[in-house]
Amino acid sequence: MGKTNGGFVVVALISCFYLEFGTGADSITPSKSIKDPEAIISEGGVFGLGFFSLANSSNRYVGILYNQVPVQTVVWVANRNKPLMDFSGILNLSSDGNIVVLNGKSEILWSSNVTNSAPNTTTAQLLDSGNLVLYNDDSNGVNLWESFQHPSNAFLQTMKISTDVKTGQKVEIRSWKSPDDPSEGNFSLSLEPFNVPECVVWNNGQLYFRTGPWNGHGFIGMISMYNVYLDGFSLVADSKEKSYYFTFELSNTSLVMYYEFDPQGQLIEHQWDDGKREWLNPLSVLLNDCDIYGKCGAFGVCDSTKRPICSCLKGFEPRNVEEWRGGNWSGGCVRTTLLQCQNEGFLKLKTMKVPAFPDWLSTTYGGCEDQCKKNCSCVAYAYDAGIGCMFWSADLIDVQKFSLGGVDLFLRLPSSELGKIVLMLTKLINVSQLSGFLTLKNLLTKFEVYRFADKEKRKSKIIVITTVIPGVVSITIFVLCLRRWMAKKRGRKQNDKQKLNKGNAGAIFSRKDVGDNSIQDKLQQELPLFRFKELATATNDFHRTKKLGQGNTR
Ligand SMILES: *[C@@H]1O[C@H](CO)[C@@H](O)[C@H](O)[C@H]1NC(C)=O
Ligand SMILES: *[C@@H]1O[C@H](CO)[C@@H](O)[C@H](O)[C@H]1NC(C)=O
Ligand SMILES: *[C@@H]1O[C@H](CO)[C@@H](O)[C@H](O)[C@H]1NC(C)=O
Ligand SMILES: *[C@@H]1O[C@H](CO)[C@@H](O)[C@H](O)[C@H]1NC(C)=O
Ligand SMILES: *[C@@H]1O[C@H](CO)[C@@H](O)[C@H](O)[C@H]1NC(C)=O
Ligand SMILES: *[C@@H]1O[C@H](CO)[C@@H](O)[C@H](O)[C@H]1NC(C)=O
Ligand SMILES: *[C@@H]1O[C@H](CO)[C@@H](O)[C@H](O)[C@H]1NC(C)=O
Ligand SMILES: *[C@@H]1O[C@H](CO)[C@@H](O)[C@H](O)[C@H]1NC(C)=O
Ligand SMILES: *[C@@H]1O[C@H](CO)[C@@H](O)[C@H](O)[C@H]1NC(C)=O
């Protein structure tokens, strides 16, 4: 009973909508034009092309609307910058073979504006994809013009946001001025090849938001894409031809879904709920202040969970402390110690949004660090299995700390900065289970970082405590190593103590050492040794509040 009623409402709504749009054909030809309020409907009834007004405006526009949903949903506008002022509009094929919007005085408000060699045989057809295409008998299946190549503010399935570097042609999405004014707004969304292609939002021509590079599954600079199953999205890069496009096609054909690029430059996912008969939970892609390009300036890092959201990367300090304190972070940060291209290592920053404009090298893991180390102008690198190595040689801009997802960013720092990281092996678990080769990489399966309160110097230190788990080893080797280590320790005890007291934790353990070399090599290296008690005291018994973080080097 209820069902029958529901069905009736649906039928009523649909027929009401059809009435407005008419039940026309799907094409406009030289002999068939439409005038306000007529419309054409795509063959399967998915989209309609006709005249409409927006909520608080009497202006009339010609555009493409969803025909299968009973809520006015505009996905493309022809005369977006030149509205019709009354109900006398006409949409027809002009004598030169273009589809045109005319007003009552036969003035052309908008034209597809292409050269057409056979105007008499031209058809403008609205497809079920929402694409309005113009073709003639001569064009052999190639469209003279497509609305998909001149998008408004909607990103529909099978539409391609594209950039052709050779021809300079770009298909980009352009926001509306406001919800009731479809004229060109401040924001555009385009695909930028850079060295690794990514999508970018521009605000009046200024970079406003980056998705981060595409890795074959998603954009690595978008937290909202982390763990989301990206159904049917693809970025196709023909680097030889220098042409690129981004598109999507859902495998579930019964889903009605599209993206709207709103007047504030947010990309919003709309999904139709057939039961509730409304567009469901609009999902916004731009989530917080940190997503705005370069919020924290060069070498700043944005963390939306912190207050203030901006801080300087380790080894950097604000360029202008007053501005920075005042919440103007655009000046960014500068190095506290300049790089000398020697005695340097890499600091690992986890779950980061990669900085803008990476250099790129297609390679396998392991190579990135060496490549970066070799090149004195390289200040950071990152690796993603779907991309390869990314390097940065200039300012690091638009760095963000995510709570999950992102990539590990390795920041080049002088060892005087890295030296503040101290490593200590605390215990060895179940040696009897170990097999294979003991490498530090295996050894350091877990570490925790603590703030180390130094009595004499205010400069805080960081201690890494590791727990040793499977890896390998015959106990003998380990014991041997330990002995050697102890011997060294005894010899250096005095020295170490001085170092500690001076607040200079000493040489220690830069990232580079967490490599694949054998335990012997590693343990022979200078390790500063602290008594467990010392550490416990300094870190308040390894108290949670002193803990800066933890990780797993696997
Ligand atoms: C289309 O517009 C042109 C230019 O005003 C006009 O000459 C022609 O008659 C119109 N065609 C139709 C079918 O209305
Ligand atoms: C239309 O105007 C009303 C009242 O000013 C406002 O509440 C509503 O949001 C407006 N609608 C649009 C689409 O701008
Ligand atoms: C049509 O194209 C010409 C140049 O190709 C351009 O000057 C003109 O503004 C375009 N007109 C419209 C309505 O897009
Ligand atoms: C196209 O139409 C014009 C006038 O309407 C006519 O003179 C011309 O012969 C036609 N061309 C073709 C190829 O049909
Ligand atoms: C667009 O930019 C202009 C000029 O910068 C500004 O006045 C206007 O508020 C902006 N509109 C939106 C929706 O951001
Ligand atoms: C396809 O989408 C519809 C509508 O949301 C949903 O009811 C259905 O379960 C989906 N089918 C599959 C195979 O996911
Ligand atoms: C922020 O600082 C920059 C210089 O670093 C300056 O050009 C800009 O005007 C400042 N912005 C504000 C809002 O004070
Ligand atoms: C070092 O890096 C810079 C910037 O990425 C690059 O232009 C230069 O060619 C590199 N030099 C070498 C020797 O790889
Ligand atoms: C060490 O591993 C063996 C074999 O898995 C297990 O039986 C034993 O309980 C473990 N010992 C400890 C102390 O965990």
Describe this entry's structure for a reader:
The protein is 15% helix and 34% strand. Mean pLDDT is 77; it is low at 1-23, 420-447, 452-487 and 489-532. The protein is an alpha+beta fold and 554 residues long. A hairpin with a 7-residue loop joins β5 and β6. The protein is built from eight helices and 38 strands. The strands form nine sheets. The chain has an eight-stranded mixed sheet with strand order 26-25-33-29-34-31-32-30. It has a four-stranded antiparallel sheet with strand order 1-10-11-12, with no helix packed on it. Among the domains are: 1-150, Agglutinin, subunit A; 291-423, Hepatocyte Growth Factor (3-Layer(bba) Sandwich); 473-499 and 511-554, no CATH class. Bound molecules: 2-acetamido-2-deoxy-beta-D-glucopyranose (9 copies). The site of one 2-acetamido-2-deoxy-beta-D-glucopyranose has 4 residues, from loops. The chain crosses the membrane at residues 462-482. Keywords: Disulfide bond, EGF-like domain, Glycoprotein, Membrane, Signal, Transmembrane, Transmembrane helix.
